Q: What sequence folds into this?
């Protein structure tokens, strides 16, 4: 049987259960909020053991990235993500998951051509456009705003 | 109190992402990219720092905070180093998070048995 793209997406829509926007949002709120609360706790922890404010923020981020990497490695992050949706995608843990997951998945194609190539398949555009936006802001600061000098 | 502010603010930002996913069918890569760029713009306009002051990690852990970090890095670098700062500020500011993701990603790939598929 041959079906085109349009028919297929129609079939998928018919077969999939109705989406529950309210329920999805509630889960995103709870899980996403919890990850941010953990980030705040880590920040306070690192500050208490002597890191200066900006370093404590960075250490909290690195810890969250590490935690996300472990959970991704164990296959738990994707299970959590099924429920949490954007709650696990939008925090920095989602960025880490987007790096670790393809790094592992494409390991079978080799460490260089697989892992090395595909590692930034999702995170790459995030960095590209984030940096581009920051350069535009830098140009504005340097050439227009007197504050930048 | 800090924890409540972080929970509610972070949660609401994630809800915004969920609404975009459910209503516009945006892919994860598009959501992450637009949130980072939005973070740079919001921070450049001075709109994000007040939210960071209020919510702490609630405004920094979501990927918008990544954009905020980039914008702040550029600000500091341009103020300190001038023209060169335009090129160094962004990568310097995001170095920690990106490098950590890279290192952990590589370790995870090494630990995974080659040829096993999930």
A:
């Amino acid at each position: 049987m041959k079906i085109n793209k349009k028919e297929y997406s129609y079939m998928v829509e018919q077969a999939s259960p109705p989406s529950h926007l309210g329920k999805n949002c509630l889960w995103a709120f709870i899980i996403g909020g919890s990850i941010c609360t953990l980030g705040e706790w880590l920040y306070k922890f690192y500050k208490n053991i002597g890191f200066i404010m900006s370093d404590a923020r960075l250490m909290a981020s690195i810890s969250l990235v590490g935690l996300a990497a472990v959970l991704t490695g164990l296959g738990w992050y994707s299970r959590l993500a099924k429920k949490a949706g954007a709650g696990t995608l939008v925090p920095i843990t989602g960025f880490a998951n987007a790096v670790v997951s393809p790094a592992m998945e494409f390991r079978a194609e080799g460490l260089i051509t697989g892992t090395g190539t595909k590692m930034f398949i999702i995170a790459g555009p995030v960095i590209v456009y984030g940096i581009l936006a920051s350069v535009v802001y830098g140009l504005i600061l340097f050439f227009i705003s007197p504050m930048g000098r | 109190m800090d924890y409540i502010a972080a929970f509610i603010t972070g949660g609401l930002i994630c809800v915004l992402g969920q609404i975009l996913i459910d209503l516009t069918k945006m892919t994860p890569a598009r959501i992450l990219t637009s949130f980072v760029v939005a973070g740079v713009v919001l921070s450049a306009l001075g709109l994000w720092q007040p939210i960071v002051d209020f919510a702490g990690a609630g405004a920094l852990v979501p990927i918008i905070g990544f954009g905020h970090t980039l914008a702040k890095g550029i600000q500091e670098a341009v103020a300190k180093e001038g023209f060169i700062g335009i090129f160094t500020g962004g990568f310097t500011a995001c170095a920690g998070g990106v490098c950590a993701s890279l290192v952990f990603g590589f370790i995870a790939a090494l630990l995974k048995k080659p040829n096993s598929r999930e």
About this structure: The longest helix of chain B spans residues 83-111. Helices of chain B lie at 2-24, 28-44, 49-55, 57-60, 63-81, 83-111.
